[in-house]
Amino acid sequence: MLVVKNLTKTFTTASGSVSALENVSLTVETGEFASIIGKSGSGKSTFLSMLGALDIPTSGKIEVDGVDIAKLSANKQTAYRAKKIGFVFQHYNLIPNLSALENVMLALEFGGMPMKKRKARAEQLLTDVGLEPDEQLRKPARLSGGQQQRVSIARAIANHPAIVLADEPTGNLDSETGKKIFDLLHRLSRSEKTTILAVTHDMNIAGKTDRTFKLKDGKIAN
Amino acid sequence: MNVISRGIKNALRSPLRSGAIVLMLAISIGLILSMLVARGSVSAKIDEVKSTAGTSITISPAGVMGFAGGGDALTSAQLTSIKNTPHITSTSASLSDQLSTTDTNLTASLELGNFGARMQRFEGSGSTANGESAPTSTNSTSTRPAPTPRTSVTGTTNPNSVSTNGSDLNITSGVTIDGTSSALIALVGSDLATKNSLTVGSTFTAYTKTITVKGIFKTDNKFQDSGIIMPLATVQTLTDQSGAVTSVVAKVDSSDNVSTTVTSLKSTLGDKADIISQAEQAAASVSSLESIASLALAGVIGATIAGAVIVLLSMIMIVRERRREIGVIKAIGGTNRKVMAQFVTEALTLTIIGSVVGLTLGVLVSGPMTNSLVSNSQSSSQTARAEGPGAGLIRGGFSQINRNITSVTSSITPEIFAVAIGMTLLIAIVGSAVPAWFIARISPAEVLRTE
Q1: CATH of A28-57+67-220, one of 3.40.920.10, 3.40.50.300, 3.40.50.720, 3.90.1150.10
Q2: What is the ipTM of this complex?
Q3: CB-based contact A212:A35 (threshold 8 Å)
């Protein structure tokens, strides 16, 4: 379960302090597929980076399965990102000189899986997200946007994370491919009982998730 | 695929850029090796020249050069003080003279020529400083005799000192003479012996005395082979110059003491003598080599810095280019240590490839480069020396020193190779340390900022 309590993030700029998030509180149950909507600059990406332990909040708590990740040491936050969090990005962010298979194996390496088991697990994951064996050996540049996002999802769920954080997962895809990716994420949340929190602009997608949070000027609006 | 193989794979990610980095690095490393080899070869040759320079010190009366110049011969008292100078183990002294046709029944084998005529033109009590009239002219002053070929006589305590190549005198027939005796004996040069049909046991007249030929010598020096060598005491007696010498060669116990002995002799003899040591001549000869050694060291340092800067800038460029990728790796759980290890491996891979190419390049060019540096330097220094006064009188050990210098050969020793590899490692460490620091500072949140 994900519990966020009074989360605040303030940035110091040349013109003074700017609050990106202000007393944000929410709870997402395990296996729930939630979406966050909001205009550009509303604090969506900042919120996601706090949840993924990519950045440290100014104040407040983020509890994942009872552990406050904001208080973890840098090393433990890295381990948290490797094992408890999966990221899906709008621009996929696959490593360009590694094949699809190697990209997934990289996440398995960071998750601590023994070298001998990585390949079989990566192949299974890529097959599950719909990538053919020959496509698994291609580098990202030789895959379509939809295929790259599938690889990105396979990488995100490789280490059985507690939460998958998706930043505009369909933002770079056509509507048909976007729907397929959404269905894939939805299916995973059900079959793997993985909590999924997706930031999106697409109201059609947001409407199909279990719950939708609206961020406005760094605050939960609903 | 682990962090090492990812680093290696990344190094070859952009063949064109990697090729350019490797090429620049190879040139730098090749230069390091070449400069190290040049420095090693030149330093070894400097040591060799200095060690073979010997421990001899030549003392001659001030102002005297061969049969030219002016001044007084060294006296027996001065010779004694030379012998008593600390560190001098032995001395050989000589007194030079010339026999005219009235002093001997021998016919000189050396043609008088323009040079000989000119030397005699200034002799005689009535000669003028700028006498331009021909020496053979019948209307010249009556006090100036017509020049005639002369025979040189060297009285010496050590006949071997007359040798021109630094080794013992080459006696072609008969035996050598005892330089310390006062007998009426002589060694005759091969040209003079042929001219006068002299053989071992023959006699000739000099200074109104009958001299017996004990041996014939040959030096391949026309001047020496036209002369006579006799014991020092004999020449001193015959020329009525008791105790006088025109040249002393002193041996010092160790090359380390040559400099202090020269100083001591200069202090004792003052301005009465000119003192030259082989070590000083060698030092002057190797000064150009020492310049090359210094230049080579500067080259090593410069090439190492250049190599490190090449790797450093390349890696900084690569890290900046891959900021987002580093952010992604950190976001999905990659530790700073792993990311740094990957980039250091990448830098090392480029450095190793550059080293292999560079060291091969260095092996190929170091020989010609060293020889080119040395021959250029030597030809310029020899030109300068030939223009100096008295250049023609340098002989013996000095020519040996020159031969040693021009025989510099470049060689790559394991030590030089080890130093080159050490320099390469230094390049890799310096070149990847700063980028590693950049990597550590990249936040994983970078990946979302660019979304």
Answers
A1: 3.40.50.300
A2: 0.91
A3: yes
